[in-house]
Each structure stands twice: as C-alpha cells, then as structure tokens.
C-alpha cells in the first residue's frame, strides 16, 4: 500500500540538498515500499595499503603455498584472513 509523500523541494546546490537531507526523514518524501535494489556490478571494494612485518621464513612459506595454488601471495593472505575472520 502506497502512502502519500511530500514533494521534494528544488535545491540551488548539492550543499543545500545535503544540508536538507541531514535534518529530514526520507520516509516523508519517498515511498520505500516501491524501492528496487540497485545492482552495481563494476564496483570494486575499497582497499587500503598496509605494511605488515612478517618473519622471513613465514613469508617464504606463504609464497610457496601461493605458488602451489598459482595465485599471488598477497591474494592468498587476503583469502586466509577473510576465512579466519568468518570462522
């Protein structure tokens, strides 16, 4: 069931619009029951470069494991961290 919505005002600038929405509840302006999920297939997750000190023997072992799987060792480390986080 759709509810009546308030008309969204016109804005002179993006800053004005941002200030408006910071103080408003969007449910008075948008019927969210008609919303559709947006699919953005070409977006990549944001990554951040970090520095991580590892013992040489550990890094060598990781590189051997990565080579056996034919993947870059940095990618293997990311996969292992993700798996550990979710276990």
Written description of the protein model:
It is built from three helices and no strands. By secondary structure, it is mostly helical. It is elongated, with a radius of gyration of 24 Å. The two termini are 41 Å apart. The model has no long low-confidence stretch (mean pLDDT 90).
Topology, element by element:
Elements: H1 14-22, H2 56-69, H3 73-85
Beta-strand residue fraction? under 5%
Span between termini: 41 Å
Which spans have pLDDT < 50 for at least 5 consecutive residues?
none
Give the mean pLDDT.
90
Oligomer: single chain
* Integer-rounded radius of gyration: 24 Å
- Give the overall form: elongated
The helix content, as a percent range, equals: 40-55%
Order of helices and strands: HHH
Largest sheet: none
* Helix run count: 3
Helix vs. strand class:
mainly alpha
Write down how many β-strands occur, each being a DSSP E stretch of 2 or more residues. Answer: 0
